[in-house]
Amino acid sequence: MSARRLNRRLFLRAASGMAVAVPLLPSLMARGQTAAPIRRFVTMYTPNGQIHSAWWPTGTDTAITLNEIHQPLVKHQSRLTLLKNVDLKSAGGGPGGPHQRGIGTLYTGQELQDGEFVDGCGSRAGWANGISIDQAIANQIGQSTPYASLELGVRATENDVQGRIAYSGSGAPLPPMLQPLDVYNRIFKDLVVPDQNGQMPPDPMLAERRSVLDTVGDQLTALQGKVSYEDKQKLDAHLTLVRDVERRLATVPLTCTKPNAPSTLDPNSETDMPMIAQLEIDLLSIAFACDLARVASFEISTGLNRIRYPWLNSMGEGHPLSHMDPEDADAHPQLVARAQWHAGLIARLFDNLAAISEGDTTIADNTLLVWCTEVSEGNVHSHTNMPFLLMGGGWHFRTGRLVDAGVTDSATGQLKTASHVDLLVTLQNAMGVESQTFGLPEFVTGPLKALA
Q1: Which pLDDT score, from 0 to 100, does residue 60 have?
Q2: 24 with 233: CB under 8 angstroms?
Q3: What is the pTM (predicted TM-score) of this model?
Q4: 3-class secondary structure, 153
């Protein structure tokens, strides 16, 4: 045993801050290959449903005309996929009210735990009972970057099941960073980038970490002649990983430009809200360009949603507005304007990413975003025919279309809707995670064939 003992302390020092998991598996031997495009994944949440009459496009399949809400995305229509007849079937049971169950299951596919969070109707629930899809994907593709994932939020201030969309595991929500300066300080403040000539400036910390990595590498090399063939394969894989950490310490893509530090903004302010959202989108774009992270979640407000949008002249509180009739003369234009603004943030992200070349493609070509809310229509708290929008993912499925995921029984004429958990399976497959299950197994039939 002593011959195989590694200096764990040295290795952890070397990987400090890199969020690297290090299982001794032979599959790690392929980590140095860079031929495959880098894929990126984003979950997005906005609260309290959508106005369906302004959401669904006209036309069929690829011959669609986008509706009011999606007008900011017309430029990116070829990247967009809208899904019909997908239900949150896993939100039909367990503790909690409809908003609680909706947001808890949205990206986890799991029911809620028992708990003391209270919704507006007096229902009680705890956190979601499983990992969210972004974190399941980050566990697979996020280990090659300094940050496995980034959690961003705009006025998502409540530490409540209605205020969290990302989970590292059962009962383990991940709070979002709520102001741009926090995002900057976490990922950019100490970032060293190439100068105008493409040269990296001296970095004492980098030199120290290289020295530590050299020591770890020497230890691994010395062990190779003292172990079995099987263990030698594992050590080779481990050494490849060590050198990959070294490579990432030493190399920052030339497309990476360190942003200026943003000013301090108030995460509770309705005045600062649009600036916070835009800056967070821009910082996420740069993080993707610098390959500092490949997975992110982005949430606007919470299921509680007592906020106004004064820059849109929308002065009603969001949650009460969503309880009005969808065609109410006051509520309808306010809710549509808000949803258009949300869509505009997606457009801003993909505008940014489309401007960054990546080989023969752009980062936008290699990014997949999913956007939804916790209820389908706010006034009835439904979980059927959820307004799911995908942006990107063209490497895995055909885009630029409206997809009906429901299947009509030829004998009875009855519509069988799809489970959103099957959509989550499809998303993880698109990101290279080969698992055929996710969330509650009783709602999983497999990847959505309609997206193929």
Answers
A1: 81
A2: no
A3: 0.82
A4: strand
